[in-house]
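User: Design a sequence. Structure:
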């Protein structure tokens, strides 16, 4: 059984900041709808703000479930797995807020991160529970490189093309929940 904490300790912060990928899970309210789990990459897109706050940069992509679920109920869990020699898994459960591209406070939250074309939201998480567990079942793997595909796709679309894409493809979740205003 893992350890449960109410805050992000210094040890957990160091672990989080050393990971190259994290996973975000959300779900709509009620018994129906689709649970979503999304991989997020690149250590530059997540910041530990303080012992009870995380923020990550949400890049334009194929779906908008996370944004829709957070707007509906705020529930979120973020998970990191060590793929290195020292095994560990960390989960941070909490309540999140979405700060969308074009909204008044988006630029303020965006300033915490390196500029990245395709940024569509900053998700800020108020952490309520942090747990760690052994990670013995997670394989040891080596990072070869960051993928350039997303950046290249965003550059090809440009700001106007990305805005159009979000309105056409990200306005609603697969369950019909609002993500972006049309």
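Assistant: Done.
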């Amino acid at each position: 059984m893992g350890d449960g904490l109410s805050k992000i300790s210094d040890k957990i912060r160091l672990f989080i900041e050393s990971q190259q990928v994290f996973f975000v899970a959300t779900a709509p309210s009620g018994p129906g709808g689709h649970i979503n789990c999304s991989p997020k990459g690149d250590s530059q897109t997540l910041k530990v703000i303080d012992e009870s706050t995380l923020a990550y940069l949400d890049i334009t992509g194929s779906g908008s479930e996370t944004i829709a679920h957070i707007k509906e109920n705020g529930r979120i869990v973020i998970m990191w797995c060590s793929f290195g020699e020292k095994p560990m898994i960390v989960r941070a459960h909490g309540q999140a807020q979405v700060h969308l591209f074009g909204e008044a406070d988006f630029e303020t939250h965006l300033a915490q991160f390196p500029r990245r074309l395709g940024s569509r939201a900053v998700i800020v998480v108020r952490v309520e529970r942090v747990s760690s567990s052994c990670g013995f079942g997670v394989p040891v793997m080596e990072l070869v490189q960051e993928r350039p595909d997303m950046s290249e796709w965003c550059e090809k679309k440009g700001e106007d093309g990305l805005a159009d894409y979000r309105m056409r493809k990200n306005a609603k979740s697969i369950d019909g929940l609002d993500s972006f205003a049309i």
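The mean pLDDT is 94. The first strand starts at residue 3 and ends at 5.
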